[in-house]
Please model this.
Amino acid sequence: MRKGGREELKAKDKHLKPEDMISLSRQYYQGGFLIHGMFIFGYPFEKDVLIRIPAQERVRHFRRFIKQAKIDTVQVLLPVPIPGTKLTQRLKEENRLFPRESIGWEYYDENFPLFVPDDPMTPEEMQNSIKVIMGRFYRFRHMFQVGLNILSFPVVFLYLHDFFFSVDIPQGSWVEGHMGNVG
Model:
């Protein structure tokens, strides 16, 4: 996610770097885990952050990150300014919040823009971008791979179950008293 991704993580108070997230994701992938990525697209930068990224470029950053991290399923949502949060207060001070009187609570589901996004992005571009990211991710070719992963999961699970529960446990160990409750 390069520079923009770093700044977005920083804006969300995340103490991770994109390359660390990719590394962890690959480790889980190599361990046989399926990875579901949940992302917030269009999180607003602080006023003093001078990075302005067009929607198309943010979409490219997200797609590149998803591919590098080998994510199996993905969900991309929009930020929601929940009343009482720092984000809501900041957006209110910047006069960027859409009035709650004109937008019902049913739109607070992370699928609709609820504030004016950072320049040069428009609310329409912000909403369309999450459709573009997920639409390209869930194309037919990828859906075949997702289906294969889902169908192979029980096989991996049963293999691991047999592996872990065929281990001999020494007499008198702390685990012995709990083994009757497992499996």
The CA atoms of residues 1 and 61 lie 5 Å apart.
